[in-house]
Amino acid sequence: MRKSICFIAAVLLLFSxxxxxxxxxxxxWLRYERVTEPALYNNYRQSVKQLIFPAGSPTLKVAKxxxxxxxxxxxxxxxxxxxxxxxxxxxVIGTPQTSTLxxxxxxxxNTIRREGYFIxxxxxxxxxxxxxxxxxxxxxxxxxxxxxxxxxxxxxxxxLALIDQPKIQxxxxxxxxxxxxxxxxxxxxxxxxxxHKLPGYIDRRYIDYARANASIGINATVVNNVNAxxxxxxxxxITKAAAxxxxxxxxxxxxxxxxxxxxxxxxxxxxxADPLDAGVQKWWKDKADEIYRYIxxxxxxxxxxxxxGQPGPQTYGRNHAEGANMLADALKPxxxxxxxRAFVYDDKVPDDRAKQAYNEFKPLDGQFHSNVIVQVKxxxxxxxxxxxxxxxxxxxxxxxVMMEFQITQEYLGFSTHLVYLGQLFKETLASDTYAHGxxxxxxxxxxxxxxxxxxxxxxxxxxIGSDVNWCGHPFAQANWYAFGRLAWNPEQSxxxxxxxxxxxxxxxxxAFVNPVKQMMMDSREITVNYMTxxxxxxxxxxxxxxxxxxxxxxxxxxxxxxVYYHKADSAGVGFERxxxxxxxxxxxxxxxRNQLENVQTTPEKFLLWxxxxxxxxxxxxxxxxxxEMVHRYYSGVDSVRNMQKTWSLMQGKIDNERFAEVKxxxxxxxxxxxxxxxxxxxxxxxxxxxxxxxxxEKPDHDLAYxxxxxxxxxxxTRGVQ
Amino acid sequence: MRKSICFIAAVLLLFSxxxxxxxxxxxxWLRYERVTEPALYNNYRQSVKQLIFPAGSPTLKVAKxxxxxxxxxxxxxxxxxxxxxxxxxxxVIGTPQTSTLxxxxxxxxNTIRREGYFIxxxxxxxxxxxxxxxxxxxxxxxxxxxxxxxxxxxxxxxxLALIDQPKIQxxxxxxxxxxxxxxxxxxxxxxxxxxHKLPGYIDRRYIDYARANASIGINATVVNNVNAxxxxxxxxxITKAAAxxxxxxxxxxxxxxxxxxxxxxxxxxxxxADPLDAGVQKWWKDKADEIYRYIxxxxxxxxxxxxxGQPGPQTYGRNHAEGANMLADALKPxxxxxxxRAFVYDDKVPDDRAKQAYNEFKPLDGQFHSNVIVQVKxxxxxxxxxxxxxxxxxxxxxxxVMMEFQITQEYLGFSTHLVYLGQLFKETLASDTYAHGxxxxxxxxxxxxxxxxxxxxxxxxxxIGSDVNWCGHPFAQANWYAFGRLAWNPEQSxxxxxxxxxxxxxxxxxAFVNPVKQMMMDSREITVNYMTxxxxxxxxxxxxxxxxxxxxxxxxxxxxxxVYYHKADSAGVGFERxxxxxxxxxxxxxxxRNQLENVQTTPEKFLLWxxxxxxxxxxxxxxxxxxEMVHRYYSGVDSVRNMQKTWSLMQGKIDNERFAEVKxxxxxxxxxxxxxxxxxxxxxxxxxxxxxxxxxEKPDHDLAYxxxxxxxxxxxTRGVQ
Lengths: 721, 721
Hints:
The structure is a homodimer. By secondary structure, chain A is α/β, with parallel strands linked by helices. Chain A folds into three domains: 24-164, Chitobiase/beta-hexosaminidase domain 2-like (Chitobiase, domain 2); 170-505, TIM Barrel (Alpha-Beta Barrel); 529-575 and 612-707, Alpha-Beta Complex (Alpha-d-glucuronidase, C-terminal Domain), CATH 3.90.1330.10. Helices cover 38% and strands 10% of the residues of chain A. Chain A has 23 helices and 16 strands. Chain A has helices at 2-16, 38-47, 58-75, 100-103, 106-112, 137-152, 204-215, 235-248, 263-266, 278-294, 320-331, 356-361, 422-429, 442-446, 477-488, 494-505, 510-531, 563-566, 590-597, 607-610, 625-648, 656-688, 703-708; strands at 50-52, 80-81, 90-94, 117-124, 127-133, 161-164, 170-174, 220-222, 254-259, 300-303, 337-341, 372-377, 401-406, 457-461, 572-573, 613-614. In chain A, strand 1, helix 3 (58-75) and strand 2 form a beta-alpha-beta unit. In chain A, helix 15 packs across helix 16 and helix 16 (494-505) packs across helix 17. Chain A is globular. At the A-B interface, helix 1, helix 3, helix 7 and helix 22 of A face helix 1, helix 3, helix 7 and helix 22 of B.
């Protein structure tokens, strides 16, 4: 009889995984695949037989539903609901307010503050239990998601003693989504937000979006582009935004809006948007009051001002602090904050654009009101494949400073290149500013440790769109995931994060996880090699930033060209930012500055970022600079081919659909890596006058061919609205 | 033991339907839900125990995979594969080329021609079999999909004797999709076609799109907008289109392209696009040759010429036949065809735009080459909620004429209104032209019966986009489905089609199917009532066509306004198209013309289409015209409220997600129906000077309020590209 049952069970299991409709990758890392290894399956089932989880609030309800659905899918099990522990294998979940069993755990509760949670094995009434506790409902939600992660990654449920809480307060996505549903630098279809159908129609995706974010600890989102349209502050659009906020609310996600600084003129009928004008101040105060009537937990404003043509306080002869403080004062009574971007540059072409943000903001340190936080990009140029950390980190001790990473791959191959950004994020976070001596990492600046900042945040420019798989490339989901994990705790390792993500998204099969994780871990360096090795930067195609464009010499202004940045000539290549050049190195603390001042001590990966270096310069490898550059470009392409080989071995280990999809995409990546390599090598050869060393395959075409290629309708390039 | 097994099976069945990820409506009508009624489940399983289906070609392979996956999902069963019939319950599938068992059925095979199929119960070796046979691989595919439909709709598999074949050759979708992925009149997100990632990346949706189309007999698609960009004929874009064609090919779907008539100038470097110029003719011939090198089964060109600003032969002093024939000659050697649209009007504002297509095309009858087909919209204006049939149907006996329906709801509430278009399509198809006396229906014109045309077609302007649920509104999927079914056979009943669609898309539960089907069947008339009752037309908002705009008096040209069409004044309302007016009625055959000439015999539904009628005109209801109009607008809104009541009773009969989604959408529909009603009643009251009769709820606002409402970023309104 046991055999028969097992046979039938096996048959049914077989057919439950058979679908005429292929794997569509919509479910992200929350797939909750059935646990098929028998010992583990039985062990898990024994561990969650009973459930004590009183759930009255919307947040607790969604946490409980998530848990029940996931256990159903993974273990074919619904734990029996109970009020007291009467059996081994009881899950106890809640807050001190919902459960006296939780309230007992005073020590943990005192440690974890507002959003943290603990998961531990305990004994109640002599029975083995697992307890998930938190001080708040959202803490419970985070605890449940992390408990489910344990099951999804096939972790042991014995000896659980997890105490976890976020190190950063505001973990926020920035959507550069226009109201017409185009997405600036979006490579995954159009905007998720169906403004036309709002507020009446709540797309199920809004809820799945909130779920996915909550599962990795993201607790805020800016739904409209920093290049903002004033209309988003009209009552009609506030009503629409309120419907989104309502959908997100149970998942602990606060809604923010980007604002256009000149909105009082454009939709308010005022003559000025001068932040010191009393009428303007009143307009913003009234507008904030109105927003909070619709969205009581509204987060606040994100502002791009006096940058790339956006209006701002400087338009009226005021400085950034004056602009930010006016908005902050309007939000203050409601608890809202202002995220004021430091990505600015004025109309004059600077000697070095890398220096501008520091020059403008450093003098304002201490002048911002307490509910303003300055949002600084990871590097001083613009989300390049590799940048040294931004000199503003650590430089404004009296001002909260938050990180802005770009998750969407504007400069990293859009949604056709497999590039795991965990490594990029981590490289910046682990960089040492030396602001208070050794160990003053960027992570410690932005988590508030270094200067005891009460307001902290990390923003990621989202790579999420209407594509069924959310991010365009299956592996681009990993970058959304890694951003969330690192915003929760910047100390986490990209390796661990990749491991978890692969297990949850694909399979726990080590024969898949290990080689593919290695591929992910290497992928960012590979991309740097075939795009911008040795500190090269900003040499991509004009406007759309598609593919290589080291030859770009004409653009709206010189600091939008490539030649401004690489400065290749017959003598060498690179931007001299030491004291012999723009002296941008002076913006760093002495330990860093001294290292970068000297070409010999400058890390090879930043060589051409900081120095104009002779083509014949002897590199540590024994090659000269030209040969090293050629070597990097070729090795980048070779590495992509190795990624293809690795991937081809994964056939059969995962579903055919995603296997084929990634295979297609890697083939495109290989083509485009070659395109980068050939274009850049041929272009720079024009200056180095040295041959491509023997043994390297020759470019398919001449330089003119690459320079004259034309592309149309490149994603992400629509202007504002 | 049986009990234990059944218990385990039940538990597994339960959990296989539990998903943390909600119903997303992606699977359309191909859901293949498990058959849960025990008797039916057993009966079906007994009927398909064995399978004889040799499948060597790509088309047979996809048919077989579809069958196997569907049986797995519906019946938890994989039929044993066999070469000979050795058991009762054998499925025999194939063509005479693949199976001698099929070749025996000479009579059926002789009847069904190229794309037909038969499904019948037979005896082989004394065993009960079901045989699905066809002359071609694609016929087998259609047979398999229709067999699966029998299972999905819980039909009996006894006494099967189906012989089915399409009545129309070219069953084609027209995508008004721009190369930048915006969609003109698209309300379901952006274009499916990811041109930037083509040809390297084949989105799984391309294949699911092809599957869905094949399942309802659609065999062709035009992937780019009729307002075409010449770039789509460059080698780069042909390569991309070829990748789409390759994905579609196994499903029997041919790819067509819209062309821009002036492409020889724009991308060919010629000085003219004059169709009589030898250089131009050669350019098109070379271009056709090139396309066929990449796409050997390319379908041909769709052309919008000399219409709404598009270039065309008249630009060079030539007529439509001369333009079409030049293109046809280029395609002819390869077997391609030209679909030349009759939706034209010149730069001069006509006395009656309704007459233009007939006036321009009727004189050209007989002048088109044999591989040209003229594509005529269902009515003479533009896809209004209701139009009389286009007078060109039946009027060009020497020319193949095909139908153009609009599936996307440009004038029917976008993707927020539930409007089943089966009724609209059928109304036109069943209209009698009297071209060869009584019974000369539009259906018989376009299926070629009436004038023995060898080339036939029906086009539908697609409502498909990147939204996860494909069409924006769950019920909009029914319009794609109904279009396909009616293109296959215009004689089919919209009721049957709705019944099949509901069963396949939602449930076979009669308590759901019957009331919801009635709602679908009524929905189009309801929409006519709250938008454009009694023959009113073209009174929607300017440009975006969003909501009411009877007051629109300023537009690019008078025949783009509303007042041009409704001609409301103190005397009455309506466009006089009898001999006392524009005499558009003269374009119809005498029986129709005479009926429409007289206000008394004109069907009430077309009253104001053909006549300017006094506000006091006595209607058959006993109301005067004004009262009748008010009555219709109010009853339209009341009917939507009844739809809401019907739908609210469906809770629990289907998944919560789609229930909630449709509920949201019906609430929007109710609001917008009120908006239409209030706007139109208040506007026309301005002329009728009569009160809204007692007992009707008063409009919430005055007319000025409605006239002054502003909307931004309305879907579907981006210009070309």
